Amino acid sequence: MGKNYSSFSYKNNTPFADKIKINGTGSSYELGYTMPLKFKDFSYLGSITLNDYNGTSESKTNNLDYKTSYIGLQNAVNYQFFDSFYFFISAKAGLNMSTIIYGKQQVNNSTFNLTDNKDFSGLILQPVLGLDAKYYISKSGYLSLGCNVAKSISLNPSADKVSFNTFQILFGGYFELNKDKHL
C-alpha cells in the first residue's frame, strides 16, 4: 500500500479550452505474487492493483475536484542489483492495465459521474518503472519501501483523452510461501 502523487493531463481538441493544472494525492494498493526467473537476480511479479487518482484545480471560472479509482492487473520484471545479507535493492519495469470503477467530478456545486465518461473509461495502459528496497525481518518475510513513476495511456476511442502522470511511494510486506528457499 502507498500513496499516489498524480497530475492529470487532458488532451482536448477544442481550441478555446482552458489549460488547467490538476494535481492531487490518492491511495495505492497492490496484492501480488513474485516468483524467481531462470536468470540470476531476476523475478516476475504479477499483481492486482487499486489506484486512486485524485486532483483539484481552479480556473478563471471553475473550481474542480476529481476523485477516481482504477482496478487493474500489473505484470513486472524485477532485477535485484544489490544484496547485503539482510538488505536488498531491485529495479522494476512493468505494465499495468486498468479500468475505472469509481469516478466523481465536482465543478463548483455540480457533481458528475465519471465512470461512463469516455474521457475516463475504457482500458488504461500504464508503463511502470521503479525501485524497491527490502529488509529481511524473519525466515518467512521482508518489509519493503519502494517508489514508482508511471504515465497512463488511454486506449479509448474518444478524441479527448485524460492521462495520469504518477509518482508512487509504496510500503509493503513480502511473505515466502516456499520455506525451503531463501533469496
Structure explained in plain terms:
This protein is an all-beta fold. The mean pLDDT is 89. It has strands spanning 2-11, 22-36, 42-58, 63-84, 87-107, 110-113, 124-138, 141-151, 153-154, 161-175. Strand 3 (42-58) and strand 4 (63-84) form a beta hairpin. An 8-stranded antiparallel β-barrel has the order 1-2-3-4-5-7-8-10. It starts with a strand and ends in an 8-residue tail after the last strand. It contains no helices and 10 strands.
Output the keywords.
183 residues, 0% helix, mainly beta, elongated
Q: What's the topology here?
A:
Layout: E1 2-11, E2 22-36, E3 42-58, E4 63-84, E5 87-107, E6 110-113, E7 124-138, E8 141-151, E9 153-154, E10 161-175
Antiparallel strand pairs: 1-2, 1-10, 2-3, 3-4, 4-5, 5-6, 5-7, 7-8, 7-9, 8-10
Strand segment tally: 10
Query: What is the chain-wise order of helices and strands?
Result: EEEEEEEEEE
Helix content: under 10%
Radius of gyration: 19 Å
The percent range for strand residues is over 45%
The helix/strand class is mainly beta
Largest beta sheet: strand ordering: 1-2-3-4-5-7-8-10
* Coarse shape: elongated
Number of helices: 0
Can you give the mean pLDDT?
89
Sheet with the most strands, sense and barrel status: 8 strands, antiparallel, barrel
Distance between the termini: 23 Å
The low-pLDDT segments are: none
Q: Quick summary of this structure?
A:
By secondary structure, the chain is mainly β. Helices cover 0% and strands 72% of the residues.
